[in-house]
Design a protein that fits this description.
The protein is mostly helical. The protein has 18 helices and 3 strands. 70% of the residues lie in helices and 5% in strands. α10 packs antiparallel against α18 and α17 packs antiparallel against α18.
Length: 429
């Protein structure tokens, strides 16, 4: 088994060197990545000696090292190969940002850092993007100029953060802070999504259970009730009628439901649909407060991060307003750049219907103390914590409500069937 000398970057940014044995260069690079090391160079050397000193015998018999490696190779071939990605997602951007920060802090030049990422990137959209950035650097352009060519991947916020790092000469620190920002945004989104998974599954199971009972269970009692006609209890007649509809037209109901879902999703992508959903998301009980605080937290964290990295107030305001997802909230903040152009303060430009008195007070304190970015980031932390707490409280109410609702519907169906059976027994007696 050949031996290889390697030079790699550790998680802390330190350079690590040494030797290892592997089947080939690619296998050696995989071993380094498994040890959470970013390989910089891997070169073949003379084969490492595996002989034991005289008199040094193992206490326990072990398999031959070549046999063990052959067995591991067979196991590793069962792993699925990495498929080339056709698009770049948030996870890819986060990984790119974090790895670039580590490589630059380790002292690598910018072009060499991108080459290292190209060597380890899977084939597809990610490798093509990195190659585009490298070609831009070779052409004498800055990294931010290369990022501007891909607005579908990198937001205005991301590009301006990188530009501020280039201007200040602290690109590695800015990328590290940007990676922390993206990680925090991912954590907040993931906490909300994961909290909604169980209620969604519960609602789907409830709908399927009712559909099965009406379509398959209720029709089994059809022969028992068909001779009674209108003498059946009203509840039993209604349930039998629903069972007939579901049994005969179930496929059409499912088709209509899928078609309605498709139409609503298409309509939601239009301007009128987005406006309707944005308004409803702010006015619904429980949900409205959560959505408003989530948008405020997003605005405050973006604004604070930009100001902390030297972006001008007017530019930072314009970018931060653009990151707000809810169209109504974004429109209410749309006049902020003009207010600041006229010499107004940020606290004066904020809409009191969106920002609470406590939030406005924190912004004023930041302006008076000269630490506006610090107070904005603190405001973001407060609101993100409140969003997580309110989501948990809402789910605490939603989950039992869904369980009781599902149980109630099934209980009504069973009650209707039992009432019909009792009516049949009464007539027979």
């Amino acid at each position: 088994m050949p031996a290889f000398k390697y030079k790699a970057v550790g998680q802390a940014g330190s350079i690590d060197t040494g030797t290892l044995t592997a089947k080939d260069v690619a296998a050696a690079q995989r071993q380094l990545r498994a040890q959470k090391l970013m390989p910089l160079s891997v070169t073949a050397t003379a084969e490492a000696s595996t002989k034991r000193p005289p008199g040094d015998t193992p206490a326990v018999e072990t398999p031959d090292i070549e046999v063990a490696r052959a067995l591991l190779d067979k196991v590793s071939t069962k792993a699925k190969p990495i498929r080339a990605k056709r698009s770049i997602g948030r996870e890819d951007v986060l990984r790119f940002t974090g790895e670039m920060a580590v490589l630059l802090k380790a002292g690598l030049p910018l072009d060499r850092a991108i080459r290292v990422q190209i060597e380890s990137a899977p084939e597809g959209a990610q490798a093509a993007l990195l190659q585009e950035l490298l070609e831009a650097l070779k052409g004498g352009k800055s990294l931010s100029a290369g990022l501007e060519k891909r607005p579908d991947v990198f937001s205005h916020f991301y590009i301006n953060m990188v530009r501020s790092g280039e201007a200040s000469g602290h690109l590695a620190d800015v990328l590290a802070e940007l990676a922390a920002y993206l990680e925090r945004s991912k954590t907040v989104r993931a906490s909300v999504v994961s909290a909604l998974i169980y209620p969604a599954i519960l609602a789907a199971v409830a709908a399927i259970s009712v559909f099965i009972m009406l379509g398959y269970v209720v029709p089994e009692f059809q022969a028992l009730f068909e001779d009674m006609g209108e003498s059946l209890p009203l509840l039993t007649q209604a349930i039998v009628g629903l069972g007939d509809i579901v049994s005969a037209w179930g496929w059409l109901i499912i088709t209509l439901f899928v078609a309605a879902f498709w139409w609503v999703s298409r309509w939601a992508a239009t301007a009128a649909g987005r406006e309707w959903f944005d308004l409803r998301s702010l006015t619904l009980p429980l949900v409205g407060s959560i959505m408003l605080k989530y948008e405020v937290a997003r605005f405050a964290r973006t604004m604070g991060t930009l100001l902390h990295n030297g972006v001008a107030m007017l530019r930072a305001t314009d970018i931060a307003v653009g990151t707000v997802g809810n169209g109504i909230v974004r429109s209410s903040l749309g006049d902020m750049p003009n207010t600041i152009k006229r010499g107004g303060r940020l606290s004066q430009a904020l809409d009191a219907r969106v920002f609470s008195p406590a939030a406005l007070q924190m912004v004023r304190v930041g302006e008076e103390s000269g630490n506006l970015h610090t107070m904005l980031l603190e405001l973001a932390k407060v609101y993100e914590a409140e969003v997580e707490d309110e989501v948990k409280r809402a789910l605490t109410l939603l989950e039992p409500a869904l369980i009781l609702g599902m149980g109630g519907i099934i209980a009504v169906i069973i009650m209707g069937i039992l009432m019909g059976i009792l009516s049949v027994n009464t007539l027979v007696v």
